[in-house]
Amino acid sequence: MNNVTTLGIDLAKNVFQLHGVDSHGRVQLRKQVRRAQLKQTIARLPPCVIGMEACASSQYWARQLEHFGHTVRLMSPHHVKPYVTGQKNDRSDAEGICEAVGRPSMRFVPRKSLDQQDMQSAHRVRQGWMHERTALINRVRGLLGEYGIVLPRSPGVIKRALPIALQEAENGLTVIVRSLLARLLEHLRDLEDRIRETERTIGELGSQNDTAARLQTIPGVGLLTATALFAAAGNAKVFKNGREMAA
């Protein structure tokens, strides 16, 4: 283990596969460790280059493992795939990651700061509720269509027209469906409140971020676009050109 210069880690929820080689490419470490043992195992290694696939927990583990003096590099899984040989399993994945991280032509995923992750989390929560709102509106329109009532797709129109439809006695809606639609309307209003609350959070984060403030000086770029761009790209200097950043 003391000769490991490059280490590949196949990340997981509970069981992690490690594959380490020395400066000559000879295997020095091939081990499976549980989550509670990973930090202790990495702490015993000399400073080395650690490669991991970019995934849900990779940014967290990158920060944790860098505390032990290692250089952590994240890679897109589809860039690692060509280096995985033999039957696909955790062991071969870790070996492929170890091989890929040492390639001079490898493209690495930019690291995210905690500020970026906070902002990205807020955007993802908002996006999830926006999708849920769209699905809810489609459900309402579909149910009303079964009773001969057609409403536009606009959320604003739905919020105004649905209460009127529920109060109208001669539109053919039964007592049961009125009760169901009333619950959906209540849920829609709750989603709207949650979306506005999340947007306020994004606004607070954006007001504290100099990069987001500068982005908003670009014509046509508002708060949501600026904060989403900062959360996704962070430091634009890590990209060679605009095309690479867009990709």
User: What integer is the average pLDDT?
Assistant: 91
Give the number of DSSP strands. Answer: 6
Largest sheet: 6 strands, mixed
C-alpha Rg (nearest Å): 25 Å
Strand content: 5-15%
- Number of spatially distinct domains: 2
Q: Secondary-structure element sequence? A: EEEHEHEHHEHHHHHH
What does the overall shape look like? Answer: elongated
Q: Name the strands of the widest sheet in spatial order.
A: 3-2-1-4-5-6
Task: Give me the number of helical elements.
Answer: 10
Give the terminus-to-terminus CA distance: 38 Å
Share of residues in helices: 40-55%
Low-confidence stretches: none
Going by helix content, strand content and strand pairing, the class is alpha/beta
Q: Describe the oligomeric state of these chains in a short phrase.
A: single chain
